[in-house]
């Protein structure tokens, strides 16, 4: 398999760059890519150290450096070494610059400013962790989103993912033997979303879960008939309350979360997709 | 303040695109940007609906569409309406295509495949939630990273953020009155990192925390001398055990996490930054 060294340089956390690389690489297959991840490159000395590694592992250099001195240094040194470079954000930044009639600021890390939106996001994460798995249901009215679903429908990771995007999320397991607190049916502010999945898939996932916990794999928890009943009970609850339902059977966490955000946008403003910064 | 409508179209979750927009917008100021976020655009009908909204809110159209039919449709219809479009990932995808001697696949959502890495990440999130705040310390040896720090040094959100990037993280509050389980000092596999912050900042953050909980703002928890002692105690513990220390005083969660990842890379392979996909 051909191998490619991919050097990713950022003068901030490198998170955006990592996602760009992941999305772009997903469009190729049968290639072994060795990623070299270089965040927080903000000094000449740091760049010097990295250039040694880059020339030892020749490949493609992709960067999101906004500091012009470091950028020019990198570009000219790579040109000397005959290594291709790509500035990952130029197309978007340049269009914005034209549209706004403004030069870009060239200040690294500005997207990580600890502004109001930042603190709201941290609060969302804290809220979400404190309201996992039916905890503190007395405070559900403060949530943006409440996810309901039977065990192993990805409620927790989906909640956490949404929290990282700024939503305060609570989640509640749907268990026929133990009905949820009646407060669930009276929520005003939060959007309640039901998560469902195919019983076959659920039995599979739960069986793996029990194996990983070293527990006996033959209990009601993985009994096909019982699981059918459970899923039917949950679906009826969702329908009775007119909650939107997302089937997570073939969806990754990110895709489930994107579907939840779509529903939330539509509900919040009665016009899909508009969200002020 | 000038206003700009920014339309973000993706045929997948739109997460990468949202981060690109955030990073690029951070380089401009004094502008009011209204973001219109359109994820999962995979059909002609969906695009038809969106085009109505775009032409009603004229502005810049940025996209990460990989499906060529939808992309061509969008581009030609925006051209007709004299609206500028930018393809956010082209520079990187085209360079990769050249380097690899391969055409891109044009299949949306491939970065969200539920592969091994995906399930490892979900497991990391579940592990991290189960090991918040000193819980289940018997299992710490399974963690990649253990964060230690006094109350309100962002241990929990930093842990969650790292979990989203695939690291299994546990965290433990450092409290002089209640020493941590001795297991903490004997960990082999996990990297233990101490989080510290300036006592002044800590008093401030904690005071706000108490206010938000409607609790009396004058307790030991926010007493300057007590907080000084607490921070000193934590720093001594970190030094005695030779744990690397990160000062979070002026760092956002993302920046603290990037610093932790840097330390983890360096420790793991004795050579900063190299990480195979």
Automatic annotation (TrEMBL), chains A, B:
Example of a GO MF term: protein serine/threonine kinase activity
Q: What is this protein called?
A: Putative pyruvate, phosphate dikinase regulatory protein
InterPro entries in alphabetical order: Kinase-pyrophosphorylase (IPR005177), PPDK_reg (IPR026565)
Reaction equation(s) it catalyzes: N(tele)-phospho-L-histidyl/L-threonyl-[pyruvate, phosphate dikinase] + ADP = N(tele)-phospho-L-histidyl/O-phospho-L-threonyl-[pyruvate, phosphate dikinase] + AMP + H(+); N(tele)-phospho-L-histidyl/O-phospho-L-threonyl-[pyruvate, phosphate dikinase] + phosphate + H(+) = N(tele)-phospho-L-histidyl/L-threonyl-[pyruvate, phosphate dikinase] + diphosphate
- Keywords annotated in UniProt: Kinase, Nucleotide-binding, Serine/threonine-protein kinase, Transferase
| Entry EC number(s) | 2.7.11.32, 2.7.4.27
Source domain of life is Bacteria
Q: Which HAMAP family match?
A: PDRP
Q: Which family does it belong to?
A: Belongs to the pyruvate, phosphate/water dikinase regulatory protein family. PDRP subfamily.
């Amino acid at each position: 398999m051909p191998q490619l060294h991919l050097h990713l340089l950022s003068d901030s956390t490198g998170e955006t760059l990592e996602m760009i690389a992941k999305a772009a690489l997903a469009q190729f297959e049968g290639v072994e890519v060795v990623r070299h991840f270089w965040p927080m490159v903000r000094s000449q000395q740091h760049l010097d150290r990295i250039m040694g590694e880059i020339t030892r592992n020749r490949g493609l250099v992709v960067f999101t450096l906004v500091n012009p001195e470091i950028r020019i240094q990198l570009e000219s040194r790579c040109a000397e070494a005959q290594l291709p470079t790509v500035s990952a954000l130029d197309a978007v930044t340049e269009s914005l610059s034209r549209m706004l009639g403004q030069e870009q600021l060239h200040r690294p890390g500005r997207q990580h400013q600890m502004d109001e939106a930042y603190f709201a996001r941290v609060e969302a994460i804290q809220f979400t962790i404190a309201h996992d798995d039916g905890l503190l249901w007395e405070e559900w009215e403060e949530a943006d989103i409440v996810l309901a679903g039977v065990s192993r429908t990805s409620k927790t990771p989906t909640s956490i993912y949404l929290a990282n995007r700024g939503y305060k999320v609570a989640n509640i397991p749907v268990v026929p033997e133990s009905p949820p607190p009646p407060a669930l049916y009276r929520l005003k502010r939060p959007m309640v979303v039901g998560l469902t999945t195919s019983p076959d898939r659920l039995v599979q996932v739960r069986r793996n879960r029990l194996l990983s916990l070293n527990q006996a794999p033959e209990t009601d928890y993985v009994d096909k008939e019982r699981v059918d009943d459970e899923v039917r009970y949950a679906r009826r609850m969702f329908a009775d309350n007119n909650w939107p339902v997302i089937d997570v059977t073939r969806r990754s966490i990110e895709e489930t979360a994107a579907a939840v955000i779509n529903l939330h946008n539509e509900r919040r403003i009665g016009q899909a997709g508009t969200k002020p910064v």
